[in-house]
Amino acid sequence: MYLCLEALVLRSPIDPEPVDGFYCAVRAAEPQFLTTPRRREAWYLSTLAVHPVYQSQRLGRALVQEGLELVDKAGSASYLVGLRSVEAFYPKYGFKEVCRVNVGELKAWDGGSVMFRE
């Protein structure tokens, strides 16, 4: 499964400008959500996506569960930044919104929910 997903995900080059803006916005907001030692040591669940052709086959669930198994084995918290269209997906895994980062240059972005699983 990993090789198949990797091949799909890595086909298109990434435009660095929006990516840089995203990471700058997240870094600027860190003082709002990295407020405890446990949160400062939390694992970041990086960007996950399933190609639309393969959605509704529980692949997103498998990706999240695999990552969370590693986090749980380490006894750590985890966090992510979600798009509005998937914000309802993550509470099933114990994530709760703590703030939003769709501010500044990202204010028009339809998403930006910083969610923690502690």
Topology:
Elements lengths: L1 H8 L6 H18 L3 H4 L2 E2 L14 H16 L3 E6 L12 E5 L10 E7 L1
Describe this structure in words.
- The chain has four helices and four strands, in the order H-H-H-E-H-E-E-E.
- The protein is an alpha+beta fold.
- It has one domain (2-9, 35-117): Gcn5-related N-acetyltransferase (GNAT) (Aminopeptidase), CATH 3.40.630.30.
- A four-stranded mixed sheet has the order 1-2-4-3, covered by helices on one side.
- Strand 1 (43-44), helix 4 and strand 2 (78-83) form a beta-alpha-beta unit.
- One of its GO terms (molecular function) is acyltransferase activity, transferring groups other than amino-acyl groups.
